[in-house]
Fold each of these.
Amino acid sequence: MTKAPQVFRCAECGWNTSKWVGRCGECQAWGTVDEAAPARPGTTAAGPVNQSAKPIGSVGLEAARSRPTGVEEFDRALGGGLVQGAVILLAGEPGVGKSTLLLDVTARWAIDAGRALYVTGEESTAQVRLRAERTGALADHLYLAAETDLAAVLTHIDEVKPSLVVLDSVQTVASPSLDNPVGGVNQVREVAASLIRVAKERGIATILVGHVTKDGSIAGPRVLEHLVDVVLHFEGDRNSRLRMVRTVKNRYGPADEVGCFDLSDTGIQSLPDPTGLFLSRHAEPVPGTCITVTVEGRRPLLGEVQALVAPSALNSPRRANSGLDAARVSMVLAVLERRGRVQLSTRDVYTSTVGGARLAEPATDLAVLIAVASAAAQQATPMGMIALGEVGLAGEIRRVAGMQRRLAEAERMGFTSALVPPDSGPVPPGIRAVEVDHVGAALAVVADPASAFPIT
């Protein structure tokens, strides 16, 4: 018989080759190409089935209904709560607060919903207990285990019989049946596959904690993200208390939701209304500031853009920004100088956001432009005004998505006026909207705000 040819496959993207290579030729990942298992001979004989096929209208929905965990913002990111048998992958940078959040989730679950098992592969049970006492996450039905062996983890699941399992983290657990090092591609795949199989068979909600690489992507094989039901990213700046859980994939709900949290020494708290963190308080109007509304997932959030323009002593004036997309800021400055006739080539320009907010969407372009123009002219913008719009290279102001939602949030927060692009749709009754179609019209508001928003 002819021997079947060898096939080597990349664990990240599935690329195939006839010989082993150290680097994948498709995704350029190192050390991910391994020999693939030989294909089993096909068969046409009928085999057993797990369940008989049935009309779609007779399929029950109870198995796909979510159950709240008691942490409001975490439930928001999940689309309502945890689903029986669902497997969630939560990834984030070291020290961002993943373990603190999940310990709070498991404690609340153990109090309201049933037994919960928290398995840690990075700490001892005593260390987890100390954190639980500090954050108030103690519960009678919350079980702890410190294990790095997959067989031991499965044994704990058999003994405790929990309805929620948290594994912190999947990269620290290894299967004794494999000789690969802990955290390797094959080990992570085997551990995740085993836990997913147990979760589906027994209807256990399972949360896997994942590490991230230096570029922010989830470490391990990319197939891990395909196997799980929900992928969440836990984000936050070390210099800020604000933390966000961003949904990347969700088979049971929206895949664009965001949950906001406040991380402190006493634990982590949900932030149903985090807008106040991104605004500063001024008794009088200040030049170089402008308020905008950004959308995180489905949630509109107000953010403040601040700018400072100063004479430069350098041949190449400095451009520095914090919390804003550098490419978009550079584009807005070029449009402001070329189309708006604002001299910036001999001045340093500094732009920033308040409260560690990250404003990267095109809807914030107009706010950046007005803040810089206001700082350059030393003319304050009216208090209670927001600006929404994308700035084009020709100087035009373009419409943005979700305008009604953004304006409604601004009205709820007490703002009374807005600069918007033309044809932006209906405006809430509590806001006076001025349409600006070009950079020149926006600069006219900065030069003479009283004419645009007369006092009535």
Note: Residues 185-202 form the longest helix (18 residues).
Amino acid sequence: MRKYLIAGLLVWMPLGITFLVIRAIVGFLDKTLLLLPHGYQPDNLLGFHIPGLGVVLAIVLVLATGMIVANLLGRRLVNAWESLLSRIPLVRTLYAGVKQIMEAVLAADAKSFRRVLLIEYPRKGVWSLAFMTSDQLGEVQEKTEADVISVFIPTTPNPTSGFVLMVPEHEVIYLDMAVEQGLKMIISMGVVVPDWQKNKLLKQQQAELNK
């Protein structure tokens, strides 16, 4: 009975959690339909609700915004908007901080959260998984003897909280696992361990293709 119960849970639990998460995301994005005029909202036009239309609208809005701000006129509008926000005391701090983080993470050449590391923390001989967040530390680098990098050590099972440390680069070990695999290992409390040999082979194949 125990064997069959565990086998059943392994099927239904991931499906159930995935369904609930997707439903929550779709339900949240469906609220973007409220941006449309009342008479043009799909629920009022069709007479019934179609889940997921908000996702389509959100994607269209993001793409349209990107197309607008990618040209000269769009950049001028954004600069004018940001100049206005910079005059509002609390808003300017929050907006500037969020934008700087997004630019660092989403930039094409960004190194943040692109590498999984192994560092000795909280003491020598004890190793923790970490993610590289930056290697351009400005004043921090100028006032330290060794070349340091910024790393983020997430907590488990909630990886959104953790610690930011400045670690000498020669003291870290770069791992072959992808960021997604590192997050899975942390969230699962070390139960889900990536296939190291497979990751190593993929790294070698990618290096050969880049030559």
Note: The mean pLDDT is 82.
Amino acid sequence: MSATTTTQVTPATKRAIFGAAGLAFCGILVETSMNVTFPTLMRQFSTSLNAVQWVTTAYLLAVAATMVVAAFTQNRFKWRTIINIGGSAFVIGGLLCAISPSLWVLLLGRIIQAIGTGFALPLVFAQIMRQVPFTAQGRFTGTAGMLIALAPSLGPTYGGLVTQLLTWRLIFWITLPFGLLAWFITAKNIHQPQQPTVQRFPLMQFILIVLTLIMMTWAFNSIGTTGFSLVNFWVPLMVALLALWGFFKLAATGDQPLINVAIFHNRAFSKALAIYFLIQFIQIGLTFLLPNFTQLALGKDAMVSGLMLLAGSLTSAILSPLTGKWMDRAGIQKPARLGGILLILATLGFALVATHLSIPIIVGLFVVYQMGFSCLFNNTLTYGLQQLPPHQLGDGNATFNTLQQYSGSLGTAIMAALLATGSELHPHSSRFIQTTAGTQLALWLSLVIIVVTALIAWSLKPTKSAN
């Protein structure tokens, strides 16, 4: 029965939705928890920052690459099979990370665990859009999305506490039983509204989109070390753009596209997708930038720099379900416009006081940012998917989830590059001046992106279900 005609969500469906959200939460939590462990990993494995940063970058790439095939897997395989693969990958990958004797074993474990997150996360929203009434989709997306949106902000706090007080390996040991429980709950309760259909896997399209993701990440990751060089920036960027063009051409003309690119012809969907991508870009970028500024410029430890973001994370957790209900009642316009205003106020505040940032100022402005984030992030996902007919929901869901993870990868890479630029601008100055200069550049860029995001949000129009 479709989401538009269902009058009640069964308890089993609720358990399956929030079980999958719990598994995705555990995966994303360890994703950003490792950001504050880089100095520790560099010492333990006797390696460089460039090598250690792949602990996060490889994870994000693997998640994004897995999510690209979400629409195909959800149509081709039983949902219970998908969640069983995702749960198994989360557990096996987590165990490898927890016992890893070298950086390469840690990277392997991260990639395996990322595949688990990449399978679990799209199933959360696939269930909501197919098995929840249209009038309640905002509330369900807000509540389930609260867990997923909370995880990247809570990650540095969790990782900092565990690393400072115990050992970074416990980041994985602690999350394993919770992920295992969430996996079992989902597998027991998940219900698939339609039977799987036999399809041929579009391998060349998959290769091209993965090549795009890898080359784009390589290009932006290299800015902080080699600048805008021909070999390390421009060549990978051009390869990425050519691969992306090739993917769109094959997907548009092939009989079995990996993602139905016709969804991008829907302007309302594309606007929602742009907002979602840009907000997440800044969100993950800030969770990298602010803790690093606190440690490098203010001299605080990993625990303080992680705890600093906790108030904002809790604000997001409380407000996300409420703003979802607000959208169900009032439509997208009011929460979107308020969210845009709050995001501008927060990023403008960060940019204006970039040279005088302190812990209390960061805490306060990050809370305001998370208030705006809560009004927009999950609501634009719901709104965007509501623009699509049922046969395109899988493609839209896969696109949203892929870009959510990949925007975090780009956000981290670009913020890191701008942070490193401070050293180039002031080569003979103190670390405080260098870090502050780089942070200031990153925060002004954030303001420009958020202003663009708010303008797009202001243009959103009310919609009726496309189902």
Note: Residues 11-202+256-458 form a domain with the Growth Hormone; Chain: A; fold (CATH 1.20.1250.20).
Amino acid sequence: MKPKSIKMKSWLFLSLVGITIIIIILGSIPVRLAIARYRFPQPQAILTLGGGRDREEFTANLAQTHPNLLIWVSTGSPNSVVRQIFREAGIAETRFYLDRRAVDTVTNFTSLVKDFQKHQIKHLYLITSDFHMSRARAIAFFVLGSHGITFTSISLPSKELPESRLVVMRDACRALLWMMTGYTGASFKVK
């Protein structure tokens, strides 16, 4: 055989192996989500994606009716505002975590997934605005789903148009990149 032919066959073989691994990993996510939802049919925590006081106020109201759920607010209003909202709703500070590590929607999830694992959370409420929910769900599918954490989404009505499919696909690809490499791609995010 010619060396060029051997290189081509090796490249083809490695490509097929890589594609097979990706398909197996992606195929396992729906299974992991189904298992988590079966084992934990009710949410165990709340994750609110920052972006408006209305989300935090909604979360405080939801937390009043679910007194056993822990709450995470990821990069939202200033800490003093969020604390005031929860204090006025009668939610103890020991129930909620204000996380400021996220710089965008992808890192809302990637910065918190280990915290959820540490607290053995397998099902959570995902709260954001309706225009933002498609992107949040796509990212959650990869980031949370790859860790066997399912979610029940609750979207708040807004007057904004839904985000474009391009933005949703971009961030879904970034979530997939994070799954494969641990890198979020936040530094090359285009607005």
Note: The CA atoms of residues 55 and 148 lie 25 Å apart.
